[in-house]
Write a structure and sequence with these properties.
Blueprint (H helix, E strand, L loop, with lengths): L3 E8 L2 E8 L2 E9 L10 E10 L4 E7 L2 E6 L12 E8 L7 E5 L13 H8 L5 E2 L1 H16 L2 E5 L2 E7 L4 E6 L8 H22 L3 E6 L7 H11 L8 E2 L7 E6 L6 H5 L8 H18 L5 E5 L1 H18 L3 E5 L8 E5 L1
Parallel strand pairs: 1-9, 6-8, 12-13, 16-17
Antiparallel strand pairs: 1-2, 2-3, 4-5, 4-7, 5-6, 7-8, 10-11, 11-12, 13-15, 14-15, 16-18
Helix pairs in contact: 2-3, 3-4, 6-7
């Protein structure tokens, strides 16, 4: 039986929630102060602002400065501009596109506020124990690293590279130069990689078309399809698994639900945002402060990071006491900082 656990890391400016599967991160949810978007499963009373029959879409005003789109159904009369609808968020905003909503049945009661991060984690891992403090911080850091990594070493010479593009997510399975290219080794490498791929795509929150470049040739399609079904069982309903192509690739279609973790942590060029770096700085200061209670800390960092960290730093002072100063240093890059204590 799969062992799932929930970890919640609360830090100034950010709360991160992790679900682990057999000790490895499987889900990562992030909430930041000042950052809001329509969350999966949230129910709202929305107002129709635009109906575009040519595109088959209606645009919705969810209130609180949030918007969503609604896909029109061919077998239903479209809404009209100004109409009020009770909707549920089916897909969080991603790829520069707004959230996608679905209309609730008439008897459903719209909830005015989204559920808490802890409640959403418990829906993903019912009955799992909740772990806080230093263990949660370590689990959240590991989850971020895995979500942002391109290459994942799986052991036995097998590695897996995951690279999202605008059109699809490309996955490359590699047996490595130290292994053999024999049919049995290739088969085992593919099975090992597919078993890990489900968890890794869940931690990244990637969906849509996934193309997997398999190792070797002459694949056992039935065995690999069964492995993929098991790996993505937690993502059902909505997973479609295609046959292996003559080019040795396996295609999957995964439901898009959550905002991809990369879009939260990184900018459009794939670099960590200033806000992400600022929050990492605050956590680094907090870690050192807890290790040396009573000490005074001076953190030097790039000016833009200091500005982004200002609110979280004030919150941190309330936790560790007024023993902290953040000094902007134009000589430092945004991903560099120095924390000195006295």
């Amino acid at each position: 039986m799969a062992d799932r656990r929930i970890y919640i890391d609360k830090a100034p400016g950010e709360t991160r929630g992790v679900v682990t599967l057999d000790g490895r991160p499987e889900r990562l949810l992030i909430e930041r102060g000042g950052e809001t978007w329509p969350r999966l499963g949230v129910k709202r009373r929305a107002r129709v602002t635009l109906v575009d029959r040519a595109l088959g879409l209606a645009m919705l005003d969810l209130g609180e400065g949030q918007a969503a789109s609604l896909r029109l159904k061919a077998d239903r009369a479209p809404p009209v501009q100004g109409q009020s609808l009770d909707v549920e968020i089916a897909i969080e905003p991603q790829g520069g596109k707004p959230a996608v909503a679905r209309v609730l049945p008439a008897e459903a009661e719209p909830a005015p506020h989204p559920s808490s991060l802890e409640e959403r984690l418990k829906l993903l891992a019912p009955g799992a124990p909740v772990i806080l403090d230093s263990e949660a911080r370590a689990a959240a850091d590991e989850a971020e690293d895995e979500a942002l990594a391109v290459e994942h070493v799986l052991g036995g010479g097998v590695s897996l590279a995951i690279e999202p593009t605008r059109a699809l997510t490309a996955v490359d399975i590699d047996l490595g130069s130290g292994g053999t290219d024999g049919k049995r080794a290739a088969r085992q490498a593919n099975l090992t990689a597919l078993a890990a791929l489900g968890r890794l795509l869940r931690i990244t929150a990637l969906g849509g078309l996934v193309v997997v470049d398999l190792v070797g040739r002459g694949h056992d399609g039935q065995a690999l399809a069964h492995a993929a079904q098991n790996a993505f069982a937690a993502d059902q309903p909505g997973v479609a698994i295609g046959p292996i192509t003559k080019f040795g690739t396996l295609e999957l279609a995964l439901p898009r639900r959550w905002r991809p973790v990369r879009e939260i942590l990184c900018d459009a060029d794939g670099r960590l945002t200033v806000q992400t770096l600022a929050l990492r700085l605050v956590r680094a200061i907090e870690r050192q402060a807890r290790a040396a209670p009573g000490a005074r800390f001076v953190a030097r960092c790039a000016p833009e990071v200091a500005a982004a960290a200002a609110g979280s730093v004030e919150s941190l002072k309330g936790i560790i006491g007024a023993r902290l100063e953040v000094v902007p240093d134009p000589a430092l890059r945004s991903d560099q900082w120095d924390i000195a204590s006295s």
